[in-house]
Amino acid sequence: MRQFLKQTAASTIGSIVGLLLFITLGTSGLVLMFFAALGDEESPGIKDKSVLVFDLSTQVRDSKPPANLAQAFSGKKQEIITLRRVLQAINRATKDDRITAIFLDGRKGGGTNGYATMEELRGALAKFQAAGKKIIAYDVTLSEREYYLSSLADEIVVNPMGTMELNGLNSKQMFFKGALEKYGVGVQVIRVGDYKSAVEPYLRSDLSPANREQTKALLTDLWGKFLDTVADSRGLEADKLQTVVDRQGYVDPDEAKKIGLIDSVGYYDNVVTRLKELTGETAKTDNTEPAESFRQVDLSMYADRTVRSLETTTMSEQKIAVVYAEGAIVGGRGSIETIGSDRFAEVFRELREDKTVKAIVLRVNSPGGSATASEVILREILLAKKQKPVVVSMGNVAASGGYWIAAGGSHIFAEENSITGSIGVFGLLSNIKEIANDNGVTWDVVKTGEFADIGSNVRPKTEAELAIYQKSVNKTYELFLSKVSRYRNLPKEKVKKIARGRVWSGKEAVKIGLVDEIGGLESAIAYASKQAKLGKDWQLQEYPQQNRFETELVQRLFDVKMLESQGQIDPITAEFLKVRQELAILQDFSDPNAVYARLPLNFEID
């Protein structure tokens, strides 16, 4: 009774505190909104001849991230922003006479943004540049990801003590077979598709020949896009760049300048001087900015002050809905970081029945997951497509289950360096018999049918049981092939040849019919508008809609799972965290039929 009273008291106190915080923050939010409403449409605080600063360490995601309470209370800026918000901000700055240049600031290092995301950012920056405005980039250690974006800058400056990484791409896969054998955990796999490599970490200690072949082909496509893009921006030959890659790998700043990879070697203060020239601050006439700074506005702040106000003034009864499917595909409602089949099916039902929604854009950034969950989502997509256009935009990855749901779209867009395909399925069956027996634990069973305990994880499956699972996997694979054949209007024999679990780049996917057109999210939105014949009279809404910050705070305030530290960690700890992340993904393996359409747990390209 005493423990019950303690828990009840703690729960009550927590609820009261949460409610008070909710009311306080809600009131504060209203006050802030009131003062914001007093401002004029010219967004005061943005001065003429300002430089838009884009921190290259910023993580650019497809969908809005959850509220980060640790940063909210610490006052630290959350370096996460949605892709569309960045694109809107750059497009707005292109037409904004107050913005004279963009500064790509690499002092904090680069983010982990995928190459397809970077390609869309490059497109927006190229339009900014074409409007006669300058782009200046500065970095210390210039990685290939950062360089892919920065290479189009009018001026690239690298610190004399820095270096430039130009050594090609690699894909590293983690394998667990040895560890599973050591600790007595048994794994049995059934699959269809020679290239379906998601199960290899449990069966092998290295890449299979088929997996090595497809990974090599994919990396070759992505790397070819990198070389062609960079060479075009820098006025070099792709073959010359490859020679540098093969002979040097890492290039010091002076050599990089000599080759033509960068424009100059200098310090940050040298860049500040150059930016002051662009803002007309060469002769400082006031003390509003520190001597080491320049007239500037942060990209996320600029988006808040300009894009948000633009969105609130653009009202229309006709809407285009953008649905962000980001993360692994799982059954049920899922979480903020996953694609829950019930939750997304509900979203599509609402959009299908909403007469004001004239078109839907499905943005897919997913390695796949549960085959059953993928089918639940696909069904709702197909029902929606009968009433309005459903256009698909592929992000960095839209493969396996991600392609399963994408195949139902009216038209599919992808970047050349998007990763897609992987039309194949597998089943993963684990058991703990050996490790349990080694520690004195045994089981016995009484059953009324031969397969009554087929779902048991305390023993290996028999050959007869494996045959049952294999039949289920084969059926799911045939279903996958049939759906791709039908919705992509491809002969089934052709689908069989390009399937087998093989991954493809967006560039190759267009050639073989898995994708319709090369383009990013904005291209997909424009296409949807055209298909729905909306002209310029439409408003965009994004789904799934996120909770207000106050609601997120109350929900997570007393969560015992604390946010991880944002500080730097040593390399060894980083590797252990990768292992933990890999194993945590196993929690998403909850398909009722134990059949999955998914890429390797952590398909990492560096």
Please explain how this structure is put together:
The chain is α/β, with parallel strands linked by helices and 606 residues long. It is 45% helix and 20% strand. It contains 22 helices and 25 strands. The strands form seven sheets. Strands 12, 15, 17, 18, 19, 21, 22 and 23 form an eight-stranded mixed beta sheet that branches. Strands 1, 4, 5, 6, 9, 10 and 11 form a seven-stranded mixed beta sheet that branches. Helix 3 runs parallel beside helix 4 (115-130) and helix 3 (83-95) packs across helix 12. The chain is globular, with a radius of gyration of 26 Å. 37% of the residues are buried.
What key phrases describe this protein's structure?
single chain, 606 residues, alpha/beta, eight-stranded mixed sheet, seven-stranded mixed sheet, 45% helix, disordered N terminus
The 3D shape can be described as globular
The helix tally amounts to 22
Rg on CA atoms, Å:
26 Å
The tally of strands reads 25
Q: What characterizes the major β-sheet?
A: 8 strands, mixed
Tell me the distance between the termini.
56 Å
- Give unreliable regions as ranges: 1-42, 69-76, 548-570
Beta-strand percentage range? 15-25%
The whole-number mean of residue pLDDT values reads: 83
Structural class: alpha/beta
Query: What portion of residues is helical?
Result: 40-55%
Task: List strands and helices in order, with pairings.
Elements: H1 2-38, E1 50-55, E2 59-61, H2 69-74, E3 80-82, H3 83-95, E4 99-106, H4 115-130, E5 134-142, H5 144-150, E6 155-166, E7 171-172, H6 177-182, E8 186-192, H7 200-203, H8 209-234, H9 238-247, E9 249-251, H10 253-259, E10 264-265, H11 268-279, E11 296-298, H12 299-313, E12 319-326, E13 328-330, E14 338-340, H13 341-353, E15 357-366, E16 368-370, H14 371-385, E17 390-399, H15 401-406, E18 411-414, E19 419-421, E20 425-431, H16 433-438, H17 463-487, H18 492-498, E21 503-505, H19 506-512, E22 517-518, H20 521-531, E23 539-543, H21 549-556, H22 571-584, E24 596-598, E25 604-605
Parallel strand pairs: 1-4, 1-11, 2-3, 4-5, 5-6, 6-10, 12-15, 12-23, 13-14, 15-17, 17-18, 17-19, 18-22
Antiparallel strand pairs: 6-9, 7-25, 8-20, 16-24, 19-21
